[in-house]
Fold these 2 entries.
Entry 1:
Amino acid sequence: MTFEADIERVLFSENEIRARIDQLAGELTRAYADRDFTVVSVLKGSCVFVADLIRRIPIPLELAFVAASSYRDGTQPEALDVIFPSGNEIQGRDVLLVDDILDTGRTLKRLRYEIIERGAREVKTCVFLDKPARRAVPLQADFRGFDVEDLFVVGYGLDFAGRYRNLPYVGALRESVFQAAGDRRGAAPRA
Ligand code: XMP
């Protein structure tokens, strides 16, 4: 079976993604006109999205990264490890926090808190995909690309077990791929 045969159906094609990112970049350009701001990309999932997005925002900005990875330690259902490369990229800045997908909302809530703790002046959030059906904490993204149904999706930076990030579109993975990996829903660790 080839890599692409693992995809049940395409949800957002390359062309649809391109068109939506153009609109989103326009919204962000208007929102941040005359403001000095820092885009903080959450690794690894948002790397493809952020690379396309910032190249369509024709105003000054800085780029920083944060790594967030979840793990299960046997006691808690899921915990989040967060690594900031350096604190002084955040202090006093207007931050646009960019992630691949807003699911339960726990990751962005925690990162938002950490960025405010590091002295950001303002934090807004931008997500490529929003899965509102799965929300566990009350959090809404300030900017978002597409709403997506409650399916496990891959491509355009999103992975299952580390793969599929390099697909240029977003697709739903076949159930048989989860089963082969011994994971019914495909709740892969993030990052
Ligand atoms: P929360 O639940 O904290 O999670 O909002 C956000 C992170 O969970 C991962 N995630 C997914 N990854 N396909 C993926 O490849 C999905 O459908 C999916 N849903 C959640 C992702 O890492 C995201 O940043």
Entry 2:
Amino acid sequence: MKKYVIKGLKRKQTLEGVYTVSGSKNSGLPALAMSLLFKKEVTLKNIPEIEDIFKLSEILEKIGIKVLIKKNTFKIDSGKISSSKIDRFLGGELRASLILTGPILARTGSVEFYFPGGCSIGKRPIDVTLLAFEKLGAVISGRGDKIIIKSKEKTLIGAEIIMPVQSVTATENIMMTAVLAKGKTIIKNAAMEPEIEYLAKYLNLVGAKITGAGTPVIEIIGRNGKLLENNVPEYVNMADRIEAGSIAILAAVAGKDITIRHFVKDHLENFLQTFDQIGVKYEFIQKNVLRIKKQNIKSFKGVNIKTHEHPGFPTDLQSQMGVLLTQAKGESRIFETIFESRLDYLSSLSRMGASIKKWNIYQAEISGPSKLKAKRLMALDLRAGFSFIIAGIVAEGKTTVDNSYVVRRGYENILNKLRQIGVDIEEI
Ligand code: EPU
């Protein structure tokens, strides 16, 4: 198991340079799935070359789809699909493989997969997706972990779907499935994350009829099984808002002068408001270019954050913000409302010297500021892993973050990108 070793700056602010945010993981994954709606090869640009994306590509290849990767450009030819079964091993390793189930079902009339299983950030059920498939006229069967879904008719039939919870992947999955269904589908209580709106905008450019994406009610007029034909203009993936936010937090606690390119303000409004409340100073020097200069960290104030579906504070930035709050003066409260294990990282921060009271699995209080001391830590999930890198940079001494693989799953070329702004980090 590889690990990161980080030499801490002992609360000095020395990092400087330009950091360029990669293409988004969480819109790249549905973009790969979207290629299944096309008759011919599609070209997807600015796709991050990270483990999760490679795994999803491998699953596509196993069902007969051709994937050609060249420097963040993916050419995917879904002209022929030879199987509707998602590889058990790969699907089990990557929860996001669920995103393929709808497009495969819409395309072939059936899909077979294994329950994506538990995950280090919580239970992550799939009931919303299954409920939606049933509404669209599919029959679900299976035994044990195996799930078999078959369309009753030749094509799925548009329907009204009320999501019991706002699920990002379920919204994307059902939206894509409905593009090939017969008639109108309405998704109510849909998730509103920017990745969903981005996907819908592109699909509309190439012939789909989707309205309301980015709001809680989405309407899709289906194409009655007719595949999309025209991949013009090519798909260019949006920037990764979570990577952008992660680096902004690092810059706030350890930066001398950092410029972040592809920081899309509209995607991170709630996050920036939290920066304002804490007292982090920043400026946009151009559209989507954020500059963070050396901060007066002593003036940072504790705040309360509550994670929420978009446009609320993103759960994917909660642990990184938790590290920043160990450096702010006074009490901060964190309320994680999306995933039940996403406060687990706090025990590691406590070991490093942070003052934390965890009230229950969802709520905790951080009192700052604290001096952090290097420790050996285990990256629990992608985001907690990145928050440990930030903590290691702030701390005194050499921090080891075991299981660096999970961080690489979601942050492209992260070792070099961090080194370029002056972080003393190696992966061994
Ligand atoms: N939920 C259900 N039933 C379902 C689906 C979800 O109860 O059928 C619940 C979940 O347990 C959770 C909530 O609904 O409490 C939201 O989960 P959601 O389905 O929205 O999460 P997801 O689509 O599996 C995506 C991102 C996650 C991100 C969440 C929340 C992708 C590939 N993943 O997951 O990203 O945390 O939305 O914003 O888009 C990450 O990048 O580190 C990551 C985990």
